[in-house]
Amino acid sequence: MQVCMLIYEPKDQTAKRHDPAEAPAYWGAWTAYAAAVRASGLMVGGNGLEASPTATTLRIGAGGRQVQDGPYADTREQLGGYFVLEVPDLETALDWASRCPVFPGGAVEIRPVMPPPAA
Question: Which ranges carry the YCII-related domain (predicted)?
Fold first, then answer.
């Protein structure tokens, strides 16, 4: 089964990405984690995402198209990236999620990927 691991980071952790003093350790941990997931043979894909303030949210309602700068909701955590894994079961996904360098303080949401619709 394919799962998407959505990585949520606290804002202070995301800020480390661009802090000259903290960026090497931050990126080193993520590079090592991504390399381990890749080496496991389970990784289908994934990417880091730019910080939430760079997001644009679209809604379409009776008044037409509404475009909002920023994410849907203002929260203490930001969606920082994702991995798509091909795993045999949820327990394997939880095991890989538990190794994620977002902890402590962050969260990993694991969601099954929907199969493509039948033709």
Answer: 1-115
